[in-house]
Design brief:
Length: 218
Amino acid sequence: MKFFVDTGDVDEIRDLDATGLVDGVTTNPTLIAQTGRNFLEVVEEICSIVDGPVSAEVAATDLDGMLAEGRRLREIAGNVCIKVPLTWDGLKACKALSDEGTQVNVTLCFSAAQALLAAKAGATFISPFVGRLDDIGADGMELISDVVEIYSQYPAITTEVLVASVRSPNHVIDAARMGAHVATLPPKVLRQLALHPLTDKGLAAFVKDWASTGQKIV
Ligand code: E4P
C-alpha cells in the first residue's frame, strides 16, 4: 500500500520523507489556505522534495477554467497530479487532461457510482472521503470496500483507489485489509502508525537494564 501525506506543510513533508515512507503528497484548497503561502510556490517546493505524485487541486469549477488551471499547474513539475472535483465538468476535465498524458486525481468522491464514472473518465486516482462519510453517520470504509471490489471486476480499469479524509490508524489498516492502493494521511496519523505503548514500555526497560551493565557499544 502506498502512503501519501495529506498536507501543504513543507517542513512536515521534508521530515516525513526522510523516513522513506512517503510515496506522494495530496493538497487541497483548505490545506493550502492553512499554510498562508502562495499556492504555486508551495506545489513547486513539495515537488522538489517528493518524487511521487503531488496532487494540486484546481480552483475553477467550470470546464474551461479547470483545463486552464490544470495545464498551468502541470508546468510546475513532471510529478504534479491535477486534482479535479467529481462533478460533470470535473469528469470532462479528467478525460481531457488524462488524454494529454497528465495524472489526474478525482476528488470529493462519496459514492461507488461516482468512482465508476471517474475510472471511465481515465482518472489516475479516485479519492473517496471516508472521514466525511463517517461524520454524517454513513460508513466510509464500506465505500472503499465497494470501490475496490467494483474496480477489481474490470482488469482494464487502472484507476487507483486513494483513501482520503483519513482520521485514524484504523482507517489505514481497514483500507489496507481491503486492498486499497493508496491512503493519504495527515502527518499526525502517519506518525500514530508507529506508536504502541508496549514499544515505549519495552524500550524504557531495555534502556534501564542496559545502563545497569555499564557497557558502551561505541
Ligand atoms: C485529500 O486529498 C483530501 O482533500 C483530504 O484527505 C480531505 O480530508 P478532510 O476530510 O479531513 O478535510
